[in-house]
Amino acid sequence: MPVSPRPTAKATTATATATAEEMCPHRLVLEHVTSRWGVLVLIALAERSHRFSELRREIGRLGNRTVSEKMLTQTLQTLERDGLVHRDAKPVIPPRVDYSLTGLGREAAEQVRALTEWTQRRLDDVLQAREKYDEARA
Known about the structure:
Blueprint: H1 9-23, H2 25-34, H3 36-47, E1 50-51, H4 52-63, H5 69-81, E2 85-90, E3 96-101, H6 103-137
Antiparallel strand pairs: 1-3, 2-3
Helix pairs in contact: 1-2, 3-4, 3-6
């Protein structure tokens, strides 16, 4: 009797993603937009379009952290699939690829920016609440 091969990690992840999309597509989009790098990509591209290396540097400047090429590529592909980012590959030598926001992406970036500004404005209140919570449990 033949034994079927075990699913690969990639196949398992794809199945889990498909299941997550079927169960709660809203949550999945929210995860993409508010992910560690998704937020920074949206904010950076809200200013202007960028080539990959420019975008990587800008994200490093905005987030005070360096994003790996692999992680930035995955984030851009995810946001492109969701219709938030446009990838414009120009057939020149050397190849030139520019990334920009779609109309939908611009709208998402505005919402992310508003949440970021709120966080900056209310950080002291959040820190005080944390301190009060921790003291009550100590």
